[in-house]
From TrEMBL:
Domain NADH:flavin oxidoreductase/NADH oxidase N-terminal: 49-391
Cross-referenced Gene3D superfamilies: Aldolase class I
Pfam family, one: Oxidored_FMN
A single MF term (Gene Ontology): NADPH dehydrogenase activity
Flavoprotein among keywords: yes
Domain of life: Eukaryota
Keywords, comma-separated and alphabetical: Flavoprotein, FMN, NADP, Oxidoreductase
PANTHER family: NADPH DEHYDROGENASE C23G7.10C-RELATED (PTHR43303)
Name the UniProt record assigns to this protein: NADH:flavin oxidoreductase/NADH oxidase N-terminal domain-containing protein
Lineage of producing organism: Eukaryota, Viridiplantae, Chlorophyta, core chlorophytes, Chlorophyceae
Family: Belongs to the NADH:flavin oxidoreductase/NADH oxidase family.
Cofactor(s) essential for the protein: FMN
Length: 421
């Protein structure tokens, strides 16, 4: 890797009056320049995927990041050997950043009884071996802090397809709360409407969890504001029917999420990056009534950057409505990250069915995102980053020394096996 970090190129930030419209490559440099240190260098020695990225004081070795994925394998919120091996394998497999799953800041904020937590010191201690190993591999240890709101207290997807756990019917169930007393669907509990004291209590719990995460060795914190969980429930009119200052106008619906991001930002070290995952849209139909959409996401992201000091937005979608949404296909959420990056100028991550090295590379090279989050493809292949490097003909992939004598052959074709010499 020849160049460490992008310096915005002089003359590339603004288009001079009368100058020709930029081609996509030029546009990338321009957008990247406004996105600060996350910018790709204009001249690269290798693939964009393997360019370092700097957020605040943290330099991250590449732009292939592991998306947070619930493992439903914790007891009482405690991460286990599973989490060490699962997350550790992706760090050894070459990811730049490895994100631990949605981790509850309060016991009642878990999706299921098997979700991880960080609401007490015992859990904090249990995360330490995980972060130590991820870091020992040269990857960055990140954690997604979460509260499931009205989608809490369910089975894992592996049991009864994630059916709700109802108090009085199942001893594992717990009562739930949300911005409004509107259930996710008729089979779920009706949540209790949160008081303003509840909102403050949850904010405080996120702050306490963030401090524990820092102490546990995590280097990046992501706040989960997507997928129909508590903070998204405040944002979306689908789930927020409040008439106080936390409901109604967009500014009011953003109040709790923004206050949360601000409070966490103030509680963690200045040099530590803070990320937020959003659902860019509810994928609602006109018959669903007022809902969350990309226009509002643009306003939110601007506020997260300007008023809360958020460093990167991880752009997902959906989760407020029980039915499936839209058509999905490779990179189906990339248009959302592209628009937010272009209009807000905040660094963004793209996620969703990004499985091919060449596709991932083009997303970065065309300036549609600053990093790619890979989810299920990393479950299939923990060495995806190393394989991607070989497919792209790049010799500088971060192999652990223990594996360095048996790299994937350069120029490997997708799906091609490796012959043993
Ligand atoms: C098993 C599993 C668990 C997931 N858990 C989380 C989670 O904890 N937090 C989150 O924001 N998204 C979660 N997701 C969504 C993924 O992070 C990712 O956004 C989604 O799978 C789309 O990316 P992909 O097509 O690369 O898998 C989960 C997805 C899967 C498959």
């Amino acid at each position: 890797m020849a160049t460490l970090m992008a310096k915005p190129l002089a003359g590339c930030v603004a288009r001079r009056a009368g100058a020709a419209r930029p081609n996509p490559a030029q546009r990338n440099v321009m957008v990247a320049a406004s996105a600060g240190t996350a910018a790709l260098p204009a001249v690269r020695a290798g693939p964009a995927l393997f360019e370092h990225i700097t957020l605040r004081d943290l330099e991250i070795r590449n732009r292939i990041w592991m998306s947070p994925m619930c493992m439903y394998s914790a007891e009482e919120g405690m991460p286990s050997d599973w989490h060490l091996v699962h997350l550790g394998a992706r760090a050894a497999g070459g990811c730049g950043l490895v994100m631990a799953e949605a981790t509850a800041v309060l016991p009642e904020g878990r999706i299921s009884p098997g979700c991880t937590g960080i609401w007490n010191d015992q859990q904090m201690e249990a995360w330490k071996p995980v972060t130590r190993f991820i870091r020992s591999q040269g990857a960055v240890a990140a954690i997604q802090l979460a509260h499931a709101g009205r989608k809490a207290s369910t089975c894992s997807p592996y049991e009864n397809r994630g059916a709700p756990l109802i108090p009085g019917k199942d001893p594992r169930a717990w009562p739930i709360y949300a911005p409004s007393a509107v259930p996710f669907d008729p089979s779920h509990q009706v949540p209790r409407e949160m008081t303003q004291a509840d909102i403050q209590m949850v904010t405080d719990a996120f702050v306490a969890a963030a401090k524990r995460a820092v102490e546990a060795g995590f280097q990046v914190i992501e706040l989960h504001m997507a997928h129909g969980y508590l903070m998204h429930e405040f944002l979306s009119p689908i789930s927020n029917k409040r008439t106080d200052e936390f409901g109604g106008s967009l500014e009011n619906r953003m109040r709790a999420p923004l206050a949360l991001a601000k409070a966490v930002r103030a509680a963690i070290p200045k040099g530590m990056p803070l990320l937020v995952r959003i659902s860019a849209t509810d994928h609602a139909l006109p018959s669903d009534g007022p809902a969350w959409d990309v226009d509002q996401s643009v306003v939110l992201c601007r506020a997260l950057q300007d008023r809360a000091g958020v460093d990167l937005v991880d752009v997902s979608s959906g989760g407020s409505l029980p039915r499936g949404f839209a058509t999905v296909g490779p990179g189906y959420q990339v248009p959302f990250s592209e628009r937010i990056r272009a209009e807000v100028g905040i660094p963004v991550g793209a996620v969703g069915m990004i499985t091919q090295a060449a596709h991932a590379e083009s997303i970065l090279a065309e300036g549609l995102a600053d990093v790619v989050f890979i989810g299920r493809e990393l479950l299939r292949d923990p060495n995806w980053p190393l394989r991607a490097a070989a497919e792209l003909g790049y010799a500088g992939a971060p192999y652990p020394f223990q594996y360095s004598l048996t790299p994937f052959p350069l120029g490997l074709k997708k799906g091609q096996g490796v012959s043993i010499p």
